[in-house]
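Dear colleagues,

I hope this message finds you well. In preparation for our joint manuscript, I am sending the MPN domain-containing protein (Hevea brasiliensis) sequence together with its predicted structure, so that both groups work from identical material. I would be grateful if you could confirm receipt.
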Amino acid sequence: MAASEHTALQFTPVLSSSSLLAKVHPLVIFNICDCYVRRPDQAERVIGTLLGSVLPDGTVDIRNSYAVPHNESSDQVALDIDYHHNMLLSHQKVNPKEAIVGWYSTGLGVTGGSALIHEFYSREVPNPIHLTVDTGFRNGEGTIKAYVSVNLSLGDCQLAVQFQEIPVDLRMVEAEQVGFDILKTPMVDKIPSDLEGMEASMQRLLALIDDVHKYVDDVVEGHTASDSSIGRFISETVASLPKLLPSAFDKLVNDNLQLCGYLDIGGFLSD
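The corresponding structure tokens are as follows:
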């Protein structure tokens, strides 16, 4: 495939609430980062296939991925199509509900080569998603973006491929968020221990409690207008807390801290 025959245009318009949404599971980002770290020395970027499904509301649910070997130069792109199809068959034996929903590449934005690769995936699935993960941290963090494409034509002549950016949903649970925060940081001295992770979580919890306490005080003193939905949320949250005596709560925390300490020591001794 020759990149010189294609032009890629990238747009970032204001999108309405009814626009297409790409929901990306953390496993996909971890897989992409791992493939980038293990890439051949001469490779500038890694590309691969995205697997998932389209939900009834139109959201593209991206749950898995795998890398596809390729060679890329300034004017040509070559994909290992046989490898791609063999990997797809292997994945679908494990989870037959996962289908191709698009493809990914490492880097920031799209290129002429991206238009060629997107053309291939457009033959694999209608309206594929193109996901980009900036593993080079050019904006200070790992920027993640998603695009769909529209062909711009004049009569029977195709002029360019327009890549339209769409929203990305990266909602994740607390444990996944901790790992993702580490990944998107350009420099990490070491992975935090269980005790350090617990300390960071407690600091975030105390900060949130301070915010709630300040909000309640401001409402009581008339500095902030009351909001019944927030009041109900705070009431339901407080009601869901287990009723423990201070002594029982202290024992529970201390027992868990000792367990974390034993795990850390065990890991140190095994090293």
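For the figure legend, we might mention the following. Residues 73 and 101 are 26 Å apart (CA to CA). The mean pLDDT is 77.

With kind regards,
E.M.
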